[in-house]
Structure formats: C-alpha cells, structure tokens
C-alpha cells in the first residue's frame, strides 16, 4: 500500500511557492488578455489543479474547456503520436486560446496539441505550464508562461501522477526510487 510520507524523497516546490507563482502568472495573463476573453483549455488530467487555482486567481472574464489526450508509445514516455480521448465542446473560431499544462516534459504532446488547435481557426494559441523539464525538451514549441524549470527527476503531486497516484498532494515532490522500482 502507498505510504505517502515514506514515498517522499524531497519537497521540490511547496504549496505556498506554487500559489505565489500562479498569482504572478495571473497578473501577466490579466494584462495580456485585458481586451479579449481567453478560453483556458486544461489538458486532463494533470492540469486540473493548475486550471483550478490559476483561473480563480484571474479577475478577467474567461471561459474554460477541457481536452483529454493520450500519447501512444511504450512505457512512461510520450511518442508525439497523440490520440484525442475527449475533445473540446467549444468552437475555436476567432477565440484567444490559452492551453494550460501541469508539465512540459518532452514537449511532444503540446507541440501536437498546439498545431491541432491552430488548425481550428482561433485568433491566437498560447501555452501556460506550471513546470518544464529543460533537459528533456525535444520540441521547440514556444511557451508564453512558465512557472518553474525543474530537474529531470520523478516529480509528482499537484496534479502530476505516478500510476495515477499522488495527484492530490498540495506540494510538488520528488519520489523515492523504491516507489517506481529504482534502487
Ligand atoms: C503528462 C503531463 C503532460 C505530458 C507531458 O500527462 O501531464 O500532459 O505528460 O509530456 P510530454 O511533454 O513528454 O509530451 P500524461 O500523459 O501522464 O497524462 P495525465 O495528465 O493524465 O497524467
Ligand atoms: Mn497530462
Ligand atoms: Mg501522467
């Protein structure tokens, strides 16, 4: 059984640091979207916490929608070949789209998603991510809002999972290797 305190190697980013960073990003989004209502698109399931807290920090009119995508490919790494599991309910024509992610790892999911959404006639498509792993990036998709660059370690919490667990943690933590079968 999962014993959460025993599974934590290190608290990487605390709840307070996450909320302070989201407030900073929210002020920039409010300035950038003062004249046009953004459509926030959360990428299920990891982005649920970010969309939830970021949107409530925003004081401008906005709309929200969700997509679920799945990367084909072996094991835990995404391949860049993406399948839509749940599409948007919203017509993107003329909309100012802001994709919201919890983490950009290889960037392949987002690179595909941005192109897919751009083909639907939006006025603009920008990206906001709480975390980014610079060492792992394989795509040069431009990201307008980045919370934190993080090392290439197994991070979970605040929406991020390992085997669907740990999403509900308030902090972002690094897992002990024993959890995922390491040394
Ligand atoms: C994770 C994460 C990003 C994506 C990043 O989602 O939430 O969406 O992987 O990977 P990439 O930059 O290498 O493409 P995952 O596919 O694990 O689904 P989840 O959000 O439901 O956990
Ligand atoms: Mn995800
Ligand atoms: Mg995941």
Keywords:
183 residues, alpha/beta, binds magnesium ion, binds manganese (II) ion, binds 1-O-pyrophosphono-5-O-phosphono-alpha-D-ribofuranose
Secondary-structure-based class equals alpha/beta
Terminal Cα separation, in Å?
Answer: 19 Å
The total strand number stands at 9
Uncertain parts: none
Reading the helices and strands in chain order gives HEHEHEEEHEEEE
Q: Fill in the CATH topology.
A: Rossmann fold
Number of H- or I-type helical stretches: 4
What is the level 1 CATH name? Alpha Beta
Gross geometry: globular
Mean pLDDT: 94
Biggest sheet details: 6 strands, mixed
CATH architecture: 3-Layer(aba) Sandwich
EC number: 2.4.2.8
Catalytic activity: IMP + diphosphate = hypoxanthine + 5-phospho-alpha-D-ribose 1-diphosphate; GMP + diphosphate = guanine + 5-phospho-alpha-D-ribose 1-diphosphate
Family: Belongs to the purine/pyrimidine phosphoribosyltransferase family.
Protein name: Hypoxanthine phosphoribosyltransferase
What does this structure look like?
By secondary structure, this protein is an alpha/beta fold. The chain has a single domain, classed as 3-Layer(aba) Sandwich (Rossmann fold). The protein is 23% helix and 31% strand. The protein has 4 helices and 9 strands. Strands 4-3-2-5-6-7 form a 6-stranded mixed sheet. Helix 4 links the parallel strand 5 (96-104) and strand 6. It is globular, with a radius of gyration of 16 Å. The mean pLDDT is 94. Bound molecules: 1-O-pyrophosphono-5-O-phosphono-alpha-D-ribofuranose, manganese (II) ion and magnesium ion (MG).
């Amino acid at each position: 059984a999962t014993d959460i305190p025993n599974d934590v190697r290190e608290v990487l980013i605390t709840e307070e640091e996450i909320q302070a960073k989201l407030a900073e990003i929210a002020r920039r989004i409010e300035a950038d979207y003062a004249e046009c209502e953004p459509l926030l698109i959360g990428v299920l399931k990891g982005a649920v916490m970010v969309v939830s807290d970021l949107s409530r920090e925003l004081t401008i009119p906005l709309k929200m929608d969700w997509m679920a995508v799945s990367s084909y490919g072996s094991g835990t790494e995404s391949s860049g070949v993406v399948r839509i599991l749940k599409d948007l309910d919203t017509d993107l024509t003329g909309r100012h789209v802001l994709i919201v992610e919890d983490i950009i790892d290889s960037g392949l999911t987002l690179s595909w998603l941005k192109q897919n959404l751009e083909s639907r006639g939006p006025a603009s498509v920008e990206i906001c991510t709480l975390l980014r792993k610079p060492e792992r990036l394989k795509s040069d998709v431009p990201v307008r809002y980045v919370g934190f660059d993080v090392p290439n370690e197994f991070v979970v919490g605040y929406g991020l999972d390992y085997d669907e667990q740990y999403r509900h943690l308030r902090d972002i933590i690094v897992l002990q290797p024993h959890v995922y079968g390491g040394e």
